[in-house]
Amino acid sequence: MKEYNSSPPNDIVETDVQVIQATHKGEWTPSGTDINIECYVLENGERIFSLRGTARTMGLKGGGALALPRMLSANYIQDYLSEDIKKWMQETNKGKVQKIRPPEGGNSFHAFKASLLVDLADAFYRAKNNGVFDKPNMAYQKELAERLYNITLAFSKVGIDAFIDEITGYQEVREKDALQKLLSLYVEGLFQPWERRFPEEFYKEIYRLKGWEYTGSSRRPHTVAKITNEFIYSFLPDDVMKEVRERKTGNEKLHQWLTSEVGLTHLEKQITSATTLMRASDTWEEFEKLFNRSFNRKVTEQLSLF
């Protein structure tokens, strides 16, 4: 794409500078294109591009960090700019800027919020569709609208964060953080004193449907433990149960590792649901059908051990 010389070189006059550290960096270069965008994730979790890099990707040449603000100051585009873009322009013109310190160190650079690129593309594409760029001297703007559209076609405003996370490697950090939050909700730091969590009725219904004599003894067939795992514990988050099983070292029960507010609440609801469905069934096979339908569980093969 031909580069557009927006103005003689100049830079933003900074009056209020916020410097933020970038923790992750990546580069997106779609094959078969001349597009090259450096992506960053900041220590506060925000995703950004460099302002100069955005202008360069658009094909703007000259004007330094002011290349893009100057382009957006043109009268022809004002009616199409989003409120977020206008706010960014106002702050930039006042010298209120965000500068980013690269992960590897070095000179800081001006930031351009990643989601604003979508607003930018939308503004130029709507202007193009309304015939704003039909004049002979505006061929560049028409080409720019197409270029911006193609750049943003691969991601939407919602998906852009995930896109940058993948490019920079931040996705792995985000997933680890999400896992830790999940575990903190479900799993206690130390196992708690034993309390009855599985009511007698739960076991009585299993015995009834299996045709076994119920004696009330805590010494139950091993099959009961398998049933409990299959219909109760397997419906708690997989990562939670993996963590609980790894922490379990002695004779403590799995539920002794669950938090009262979230973990045990989820467990008890699952027990209640299963018990209710067993009570409504005349045979074990009928219970399984009701259970599978209620929990949208697809069973590819029957478990012979039940």
Structure characterization notes:
The chain has 306 residues and is an alpha/beta fold. The chain has 2 domains: 4-168, no CATH class; 177-294, no CATH class. It is 45% helix and 12% strand. The strands form 2 sheets. It has a 5-stranded mixed β-barrel. A two-stranded parallel sheet has the order 1-5. Helix 6 (160-168) crosses helix 7 (170-186). The longest helix has 17 residues, at 170-186. It is elongated and about 90 Å long. Residues 2-9 and 301-306 have low confidence and may be disordered.
Helix-strand blueprint:
Elements: E1 4-5, E2 16-28, E3 37-42, E4 47-50, H1 51-58, E5 60-61, H2 67-72, H3 83-93, E6 96-101, E7 109-113, H4 116-129, H5 139-152, H6 160-168, H7 170-186, H8 200-210, H9 222-231, H10 238-247, H11 263-279, H12 284-294
Parallel strand pairs: 1-5, 2-6
Antiparallel strand pairs: 2-3, 3-4, 4-7, 6-7
Helix pairs in contact: 4-5, 6-7, 8-11
Structure at a glance:
By secondary structure, the chain is of the alpha/beta class. It has helices at residues 51-58, 67-72, 83-93, 116-129, 139-152, 160-168, 170-186, 200-210, 222-231, 238-247, 263-279, 284-294, and strands spanning 4-5, 16-28, 37-42, 47-50, 60-61, 96-101, 109-113.
